[in-house]
Amino acid sequence: MKKRKVLLFTLLLAVAIAATSTIGHSNFLYAAPSVGKDTLTMMTSPDYPPYEYYDTKGGARKIVGFDIDIANTIAKELGFKLRIMESDFNGLIPAVQAKRADFVMAGMTPTPERRKNVDFSIVYYEAKDTIVAPKGSNLTKPEDLASKTVGVQLGTIQEENAKKISQKVPNIKLKQLNKVPEAIQEIKSKRIDAAIVEDTVAKGFARANPDLEFNIIPSAGEETGSAIAFPKGSLLVESFNKVLQQMKDRGELEKLATKWFSLNTATDAASSSTPTTSKGLNLDFSRIAPDISFILQGIPITLLFTVLSVFLGLIWGTVLSLFKISGIEPLGWFANAYTSIFRGTPLLLQLALVYYATPQLTGYDIPALQAGVLTFTLNSGAYMSETIRGGIQAVDKGQREAAMSMGVPYWLMMWDVILPQALKNILPALVNETIGLLKDSALVSTIGVVEILRSAQIIGANKYIYFEPLLFAGLIYYVLVMGLTFGASALERRLRRSE
Q1: What is the pLDDT of residue 23?
Q2: What is the 3-state secondary structure (H, E, C) of 298-360?
Q3: Which three-class secondary structure state does DSSP give residue 201?
Q4: What global pTM score does this model have?
Q5: Per-residue confidence at 6, pLDDT binned at 50, 70, 90?
Q6: Which residues lie closer than 8 Å to 222 by C-beta, 6 or more apart?
Q7: Helices 66-78 and 2-31: crossing angle, nearest 10°?
Q8: Quick one: which of 10, 99, 118, 423 has the fewest CB in 10 Å?
Q9: What angle do CA 152, 156, 157 make, to 5 degrees?
Q10: Nearest to residue 275, comparing CAs of 212, 210, 213?
Q11: Is the dihedral of CA 166, 171, 177, 182 positive or negative?
């Protein structure tokens, strides 16, 4: 009887210890990242199926993929909510350095150069590089690329590996491109001979483009897998590594890899039309028909961006123009120096500085759309200030002198007499500036705003096609510009009636 009690007590004690250990381990994972918030921000570049891409069915704007499933699992295990933001691939490292995101997942390889700027998790998936080339070109190994032009995506491990190959193989000319679909189109346009692309992505393009083939490049023994990037010194690294290791041990990573990499992400693209290898563009807009609603959803964002930028830019440009004609030297110097700087530097550079530097300088995590509006306001204000100044100076001086002789205050004279006539005179120039802003709004796609052009590029990446979505986006821009032109012409005719 005593033996049974001892045996039962021992058994219960063992169960209790095991349960306590399990609960303690679980709580450790849950509480490990002491980051002082309940939501983690992940930054990615969703133009790289099947790692991450937009699910556009029915006009949805949801980012899905292999990396997204892993990130959701980790966040759940650690007790966090997950927020996903996007950027071009070459902007991911700057984004995490600026602490705009808690981590980056985008099929990124932890190279020694990248490790100098960010911390990495353990590798969660091993991939291989391939040579993508026209079918029958016989470019099967690095040595075959001698005297060839080879495309690579800017900022990727494939770019680094291609540079290493070029040091060993003579006369390779590298062409750096922003996105993999651009490299594929360059091959089809015969501007480059081949491209170096990751195997999981190359499979999709080869299925959707039967005139292409790919061959795996043998590994040189270096680490080529994908890992998660964090800001230097991040408290999340250890916790993420523990969850990743658990997912490896339980076989979850293997299941997710099987789910996404065996999925034919090009099925829709390949089955929607009959493959052909004939010359020409082979345009087939039926391939993007199910996703047109997704592209159209970019119109309100583009219009909102343009209207805000024009309105605020006009106000700021008016202020600068008044500074220039005020006769107060410090104000004149400031306005002229400001105009010189913003007209003398690239708009894309200004956009990158505002978006990435603002959080570091002020601690304010400025949203992408807000950063775009602010940048375009500051930039267009510099240009509009000169236009408005010319319009003000074109108003007959006699009206100013008459107003002053009647004792009308300066600000009231400018508001009621001079500025209305100046704006009327410069209306065509303001319309041109508005049209320029409407088209230049495509630049905000580089910091993750999904406007018209970005929406079209997303469809192209998902469908492994190039021309159809871009041509459709071009048609939308043209319709918007024509609508703006007709509206401005009607306003100008109405203003002339009052003369």
Answers
A1: 40
A2: HHHHHHHHHHHHHHHHHHHHHHHHHHHHCCCHHHHHHHHHHHHHHHHCCHHHHHHHHHHHHHH
A3: helix
A4: 0.67
A5: very low
A6: none
A7: 120
A8: 10
A9: 100
A10: 210
A11: negative
